[in-house]
Amino acid sequence: MRYSISIFLILLSFFSCKNESKSSETSTMNNDSIALINRAKSIHERVITLDTHCDINVKNFTDSINYTQDLDTQITLPKMKSGGLDVAWFIVYTGQDTLSAEGYKKAYENAMSKFDAIHKLVTEIAPKDIELATTSADVKRITKSGKKVAMIGIENGYPVGLDISNVEKFYNLGARYMSLAHNGHSQLSDSNTGEADGVWLHNGLSDLGKDVIKEMNRLGMMIDVSHPSKEAMKQMIELSKAPIIASHSSARTLCNHSRNLDDEQLELMKENGGVVQTVAFQSYLNEEKNDARNEAIKSIRIEIADSLGGKWYNSKERQLLNNEEKEKFYSIRAQVRKLANEKARKLPNFPPMVDVSDFVNHIDYLVEKIGIAHVGISSDFDGGGGIEGWSDASETFNVTLELVKRGYTEDEIEMLWSGNLLRVLDEVEAVAKTIN
Questions:
Q1: Residues 189, 228: contact at Cβ < 8 Å?
Q2: Where would you tag: which of 75, 249, 268, 405 has the fewest CB atoms within 10 A of its CB?
Q3: Which of 280, 247, 251 lies closest to 365, judged by CA?
């Protein structure tokens, strides 16, 4: 992105020289644009930029294929460096399966493989480039050293199984937040997906889920409400002695999706002292715009996926896939999307993509509704996230640029990018010390 900005400025200078007869008004506008970009670049370099949700595939954490290379994934070390992204929360994600001993065993093994991959990245693959952080003090120290920062979040408490001691095991491996459900009811909590058919398993949290909330408070692990049901979220807030987070959700008033938080939930987040990490996920930002685009680009994606030896599925179809089918799909998803978008850009009057402006519209709404101290930023890269202008980590600067355009101050931008989330992490740790 820094190279893109440089090219933009060179071209701007070139055209200014070629058009000396243009009005002073145009000249002033160009100077203002340059000044705004330079100001945004300075802010972007000074603040700690933190993204709370980046999914991973263990196949990209090997000796021969890893994040030191510029892979097709949306997040890699070269992309983080290029875009000025300082902190990535890598996600230990497990899809929902049967509530059985066999299901729990597979989920636990899957989770451990992802913990192992993240630890391998920071200890063996690229220890000079990235380091694991578990506290806000770690984040500041590592960033100051010039390294990138890895943190760990758990998406779906399913791998806990029926053994609550696994929560502490995961904490000791570096996990600093966990959601109790994903897309499907877990043994701990109902999922937001219950809205579709009105079928609930626990009417919120199970008894074990309630115990897990208390255990997370005791350990100092942040509670994530992005995927659980609204009733589960309410019960978590009632039980928790510490602030909670929504690691990757946006405003339901602007986009009516069950993964987003409605105004009542937002008010609860504010009262709790938590933070909503606005997510750059197209269908959670502008459903109408996204649906129009997806319908128009569907045939292109199907054709490209087929040429890559795979198959394209829409979001509803994906929920019916088993873990092996999902893994195969997500292994080509980013490449299919990239190639399809490149082809679509060449077609006249093609429906536009959801973009950074749509994303910051949600930030604006959340800030106005619950205050800037309770709003943050996330991408959901390599898990479905990515928008025009922030399609991967190399374009992270564009978010800061849009915030500057809308009048946010440096202090406010710092709060949005990392300050608010790290403040909650500190408060959760402080609560844990009072319990222990």
A1: yes
A2: 405
A3: 251
